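It is time I had a proper look at our fold encoding. Can you supply me with one protein entry, sequence and fold together? It will help me judge whether the discrete encoding reads sensibly. Leave the record below and I will have a look:
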Amino acid sequence: MEKLKEPEKREALFEVMKMPKIVIQEEKGSQLLSLLLKAGNLEWGETETPLARETADYFRNSPLDPEILKTIKDFYAEGVDEEALHNIALTYRHPERVESILEMAAKYKSHVKNPQEVHKKVLALLESFEQTFSSSPLAEKFAAEIERDKSERLKRLGETKKRIESLIDFFKPDSKTTNVQKLSLVPTDPLYKANSGRNFTLPGEQIIISHIDNVDNQDHEFSHSIINPIVEKLSQQLTDEQKGKISKLASGKLKQDYGDGHFSLLCEEFIRTYNDVLKKGEKLQSYEDFVRKISDISEEQFQKFFAESKGFKARCTELGIVTIEDFKNKSREYFERFEKNQLRNLIFEIYQEYINRPNKEAENFENFVLAKFSDRI
């Protein structure tokens, strides 16, 4: 009987990125901007923690100069969104980042007119605000909280490295595609909600702003440095029709947060499917699963979530849902419009095929997706 041949081993055509150096690094500009945004809107960001409440009281009693508030409102009126402001804030005390940040603004924020002028105004605003705020008792409390957070993050550094290594081992990112040599973890911003996070990718460096205890979000934000450049390459293969189909397959809930653009939807769903289904073992949700999940929700629980979650409230309002009974009666309509996620089903299938690929060392996630995805959409 002829012996079966083993699958032919191919040499990898890529070099897997090395483990980046992880540092705990305060970003003064980002923290100052959060304080400014809070001063401009006391309901912005975190509102429930003692320090968030104290910050709101501080700005209630010591409101910002009306000219500063006007400048912030003018930014929004001119189409400068919060993400653009945070990007620019990262250049505060970091002049070496200015060129890269402005290049990103030109590439991804074309609606921002004259980013150089916006950059100049934002830095002047941050500097002026720091001079008045830095001597306040509240500034001392923020400094103490940041130092405590830094110390705790250093204790957890070994655990953080293991999680990053696990992601690198799974995706095997090409060092030419994901050029992260330094991973900067920013101490927890006391004005950010614990379930929110941001990441910023600069040449050779990724900056992650995420709550110290929300490790899933830290993994999510790091994964953007791997997934986003892959999706950029994938976008060049896709037709307009395929891009439109991606939007149709995505859940209404995801589109509510990220719009209809295929790029953001793909990036988010690749990362969320990995985190939720592969890492945490959640099931792909059917309508029957959804009904079971909501069956034991009380009216009190429903009203609490309805009041706290703007997204949930907007979805329910769209369908005329105001009570738990309404929610259960309209569960099919709600599921079809907001929860049904055919894009996740497709991406999960691709992940399964990737995990079972015959030559695991010669093919990384980037090569696999670029070879397979277009034919599946």
Remarks:
- The longest strand covers residues 180-186.
- The longest helix spans residues 215-235.
- The CA atoms of residues 316 and 322 lie 7 Å apart.
